[in-house]
Specification:
This protein is an all-alpha fold. Helix content is about 65%, strand content about 0%. The chain has 13 helices and 2 strands; from the N terminus they run αβαααααβααααααα. A two-stranded antiparallel sheet has the order 1-2. α2 packs antiparallel against α3, α2 runs antiparallel to α12 and α7 packs antiparallel against α10. It is globular and about 75 Å long. The two termini are about 35 Å apart.
Length: about 280
């Protein structure tokens, strides 16, 4: 038992570059704007609670994107997303209880557990300015990175739950995909020439949703797993109205990568060769 606890403590204390988590914070904030901004227009609904929710949404999501007062604004953003999805979810005309919006909420929750304001943020800008003014060392961009595992597990479990929903004869045979094509493209008369394609696509999705929750965690398999995952999600985005779900899933792929590798890749893009500090 003591060995298990020691490993658990070591896991919680493990530090790495926070840039990957900061990128996920920024990207998730932008996705919140894309998904909710039109529905959060202050004068769209003239009820006092909706006006207040609109103001809170714009203030906190802006702080998330730019990394302003993140120690306070990130927990408040997590609370806000809980109110939007679980408080207003089923009662709102916008259907905020959808699993796509739930994914946004959970992403904010897990990101709140990491000190993402230490990297790629206004908070860091201020910290550097204070350090320079006092003659101290530039603050580190390193910190606990264990929340990355929660984000990665969120992606993996989503694939597994999605797989569970597809375990039916209707999906195996391609009937459900044919119905989707009829809804969005062909009406009641899909081309006979495409009848063979539906079961092929159905089984391709099933295989990927079995493989990705494992392969994404294995370093030597990550390149091909991520490539196939990107192709799958881009096809979803092009062919059916999944909206911001695609980009949220792909953004969370950063959680599977070594945080210091992400840091080094950014340095390389900027022409720097320094190790993460």
């Amino acid at each position: 038992m003591g060995a298990v606890m020691s490993r658990f403590v070591a896991f919680l204390e493990r530090e790495g570059s926070l840039r990957a988590l900061a990128l996920m914070r920024i990207g998730t904030g932008l996705l919140l704007w894309s998904r909710f901004a039109r529905e959060m227009m202050p004068l769209r609904y003239l009820e006092p609670d909706r006006i207040a929710l609109s103001v809170v949404f714009y203030v906190l999501s802006t702080c998330m994107v730019f990394g302003v007062f993140t120690r306070v604004t990130m927990p408040l953003s997590a609370l806000m997303m809980g109110v939007i999805v679980m408080g207003y979810g089923e009662t709102s005309v916008e259907d905020w209880s959808h699993h796509h919006t739930t994914l946004h909420m959970l992403a904010v929750w897990w990101l709140t557990l990491a000190p993402t304001g230490r990297a790629l943020s206004v908070d860091r800008w201020w910290a550097i300015a204070d350090a320079e003014a006092s003659g101290e060392a530039i603050p580190s961009e390193r910190g606990p990175v264990w929340p990355s595992l929660l984000l990665a597990m969120q992606v993996a479990t989503l694939y597994l739950w999605s797989l569970g929903d597809k375990l039916s004869n209707g999906f195996y045979t391609g009937v459900q995909l044919e119905q989707i094509s009829m809804r969005y493209y062909f009406g009641s008369a899909p081309p006979d020439a495409l009848s063979w394609l539906y079961p092929v696509l159905a089984w391709a999705v099933l295989v990927l949703e079995v493989a990705l929750p494992v392969a994404l965690f294995v370093r030597r398999w990550q390149a091909w797993a991520m490539a196939l995952g990107v192709v799958m999600h881009v096809m979803f985005y092009i062919l059916i109205p999944v909206n911001t779900f695609t980009m949220q899933m792909l953004l969370l792929y950063l959680a599977f990568l070594d945080p210091d590798d992400v840091h080094a890749a950014i340095d390389r893009l900027l022409g720097h060769r320094a190790k993460p500090s």
